[in-house]
Amino acid sequence: MEKLARKQVQGLTPYLSARRIGGSGDVWLNANESPFDNEYKTSASRLNRYSECQPTALIEAYAAYAGVKPEQTLTSRGADEGIELLVRAFCEPNQDAILYCPPTYGMYAISAETIGVERKVVPLTSDWQLDLDSIAANLDNVKLVFVCSPNNPTGNLIKRADIVRLLDITKDKAIVVMDEAYIDFCPEASTVDLLDQYPNLAILRTLSKAFALAGLRCGFTLANEELINVLLKVIAPYPVPVPVSDIAIQALSEAGLARMRYQVLDLSANRAYLQAGLSMLPGIEIFDAWGNYLLVKFSDGDAVFKAAWDHGIILRNSPIPDCVRISIGNRIECEKTLSFIRNTLS
After folding, report:
1. Which residues form a coiled coil (predicted)?
2. Environment class of residue 330 by beta-carbon count within 10 Å: exposed (0-12), middle (13-18) or buried (19+)?
3. Contact 294, 326 (CB under 8 A)
4. How is the chain split among helix, strand and coil, in percent rounded to 5?
5. Residues near 220 by Cβ (< 8 Å), separated by ≥ 6?
6. Sheet arrangement for strand 293-297
7. Per-residue pLDDT of the chain in tens (346 residues, 90 and over written 9)
8. Which backbone phi and psi does 200 adopt, to 5 degrees?
9. Dist. CA 15–CA 107, nearest whole Å
10. Per-domain boundaries in the chain
11. Backbone phi and psi for residue 330, each to the nearest 5 degrees, phi listed first
12. Alpha helices of the chain — where are they, by DSSP H?
């Protein structure tokens, strides 16, 4: 059967999500999930009918939260579907390209490769910022430039002045896709205020992180109305199940937003606790963190990752040499992780 698959698919290495990697333990800090298991109520009614393609109440709720107009908002099955929609809508297979800047989220490349779109790579600088001159020199046939801020897995913010310059460089050439999956932990750094000024800007958002709804699979794309209308041409007819819409609307209610903001403060405090504790240990480098995770460099990161794995503390190894990404869990999980690393390095 594999021989019947498209050649691009035959040679494709699937994205190794945290769940695909697996593991066994009682401390799971590998997927940047929230430790909060919030309860929601939804009925089993209306399931005999298809959902709206873009549920009005959900679109209006998220648009109000994000500070944009409903016509600038599209919802999808997680931000991952938003990535795929953008590639499918704007890139001709075997002709156009995307550009991304590693180390960063792996699904930009996977989505492009699956569809048969070229991937151009311009690595981040040594301080994990955009190499604007190299990007400008590699824009031939590029339709989409993906930028993640806060960046996964490094945790840093991309300089706003560089984002603005990138938007100017790509004007009338390419769409800049800002992946703001973790922006709810630092909303002041969002680029949403640039939407009206730059028609070539698209922003990806999700309820998976700060809203503690990773299992709901509900994401959003924010852009000007013309761009959103293009995406509506290629999105599935019924992308948002009725229960997903019901729960997401509750999460975006006044009470839901208040709970999310309280939990963000709690996670930020736990991040500071873990960062402070790790900083006291010898031979460790901890990088700037603006999301719900820390990137930590050890003298032997693979050894620390494996030792934690064997101990039932599931972290995420990184393509960056000797670096391990640690999601921020509840205080008990952070204490267990810090204690284990302290004992391992002593």
Report:
1. none
2. middle
3. yes
4. 40, 15, 45
5. 62, 66, 73, 74, 75, 76, 79, 82, 204, 205, 206
6. 285-286, 293-297, 323-327, 316-317
7. 666 676 777 666 665 555 556 677 889 999 999 999 999 998 878 899 999 999 999 999 999 999 999 999 999 999 999 999 999 999 999 999 999 999 999 999 999 999 999 999 999 999 999 999 999 999 999 999 999 999 999 999 999 999 999 999 999 999 999 999 999 999 999 999 999 999 999 999 999 999 999 999 999 999 999 999 999 999 999 999 999 999 999 999 999 999 999 999 999 999 999 999 999 999 899 998 999 999 999 999 999 999 999 999 999 999 999 999 999 999 999 999 999 999 999 8
8. -95, 25
9. 7
10. 2-36+256-339, 56-254
11. -75, 175
12. 7-10, 18-21, 56-66, 78-90, 107-115, 132-136, 160-169, 225-234, 242-251, 254-279, 301-310, 331-345
Contact between 176 and 170 under an 8 Å Cβ cutoff? The reply is yes
Nearest alpha carbon to residue 81 among 208, 242, 249, 174? 208
Residue 118 · residue 98 · CB < 8 Å = yes
- Whether residue 138 contacts residue 169, with contact meaning beta carbons closer than 8 Å, is answered with no
Three-state DSSP at 55 gives coil
SS3 323: strand
Class of domain 2-36+256-339: alpha beta
Distance CA 112, CA 315 (A): 27
pTM value is 0.95
Amino acid found at 30:
N
φ, ψ dihedrals at 106, nearest 5°: -80, -15
